[in-house]
Design a protein that fits this description.
- Belongs to the PP2C family.
- This is protein-serine/threonine phosphatase.
- By secondary structure, the chain is an alpha+beta fold.
- The chain has one domain (about 5-155, about 220-250): Phosphatase 2c, domain 1.
- Helices cover about 25% and strands about 35% of the residues.
- It has helices at about 10-15, 75-95, 100-120, 185-195, 225, and strands at about 5, 25-35, 40-45, 55-60, 65-70, 135-140, 145-150, 155-165, 165-175, 200-205, 205-210, 220, 235-240, 250.
- Strands 1, 4, 5, 6, 7, 12 and 13 form a 7-stranded antiparallel sheet that branches. It has a 3-stranded antiparallel sheet with strand order 9-8-14, with no helix packed on it. The chain has a two-stranded antiparallel sheet with strand order 2-3.
- A hairpin with a 2-residue loop joins strand 10 and strand 11 (about 205-210).
- Helix 2 packs across helix 3.
- The protein is globular.
Length: about 250
């Protein structure tokens, strides 16, 4: 399956949009482009002077992948995910006869395992890489099914066009669940994954934190927490059948 990739810095694909400062390079966008299930567009605004986030869109004749990676503690984790996650999804989809929730889960696991190996190799000369992490939000459309996978607290929102009182309206529908231990369901999930660790989730400084360190069950990185302290996370996943011709917009 041949995939076309567009990723931040998005001007590589779409050109630069002039911002309030007259083209300061902090905004990128793409007008409507075709993909297997219709049209898509993308817009990005860089909010911080030091960019730790990544995003990408990959399209083919049969599938469309969208990824948003909210990095922190450095850009290494989000850049790694941006480079490796979708190739793994493509590889496993080919091996298993198509995209599925299991394929996405395998791609998450393979990418994280490879990043942890990179961190261990890099520690002697770049110890700060162990604190780099990234939330990971993926949406994928294949065979009229929308797959959503999330680790962290980025969000997918479906904007559905409806007719109400003879007026056109857009109704917002949240499709993803925050993978954050502030959410009781996530907190119980993390505790169930680590039944022998009574301090896996700790209430400290006014909030619930994993090992008293982080709130979001971040996907890739934070090797200090995941490897050094033995923490395991499983991505939240959902799938939705898309009726033919259904107009919708998914945003972060």
């Amino acid at each position: 399956m041949m995939l076309r990739s567009c990723y931040r810095p998005l001007e590589r694909c779409f050109g630069r949009v002039a911002g309030g400062g007259g083209g300061d390079g902090l905004m990128w966008h793409a007008d409507l482009k075709q993909h297997a299930s219709g049209d898509y567009s993308i817009a990005v605004v860089q909010a911080n002077s030091y960019l730790e986030d990544q995003s990408q869109v990959l399209t083919s004749s049969s599938a469309t992948y969208v990824g948003v990676y909210d990095g922190h503690g450095g850009p290494e984790a989000s850049r790694f995910v941006n480079k490796h996650l979708f190739p793994y999804m493509n590889k496993f989809a080919t091996e298993h006869g198509g995209l599925s929730a299991d394929v996405i889960r395998k791609a998450f696991n393979a990418t994280e395992e490879e990043f942890c190996h990179l961190v261990k190799r890099s520690l002697p000369w770049k110890p700060q890489i162990a604190s780099a992490g990234s939330c990971c939000l993926v949406g994928a459309i294949s065979n009229d099914v929308l797959y959503v996978a999330n680790l962290g607290d980025s969000r997918v929102v479906l904007g559905r066009g409806v007719d109400e009182d003879k007026k056109k309206k857009v109704v917002a529908e949240r499709l993803s669940t925050d993978h954050n231990v502030a959410v009781e369901e996530v907190r119980k999930e993390v505790q169930a994954l680590h039944p022998d660790d009574s301090h896996i989730v700790v209430y400290t400084r006014g909030v619930w934190r994993i090992k008293g360190i982080i709130q979001a069950s971040v996907y890739d990185g934070n090797t200090i927490v995941k490897v050094g302290l033995g923490v395991t996370f499983i991505p939240f996943q959902e799938s939705y059948a898309l009726p033919p011709g259904l107009p919708f917009h998914a945003i972060k």
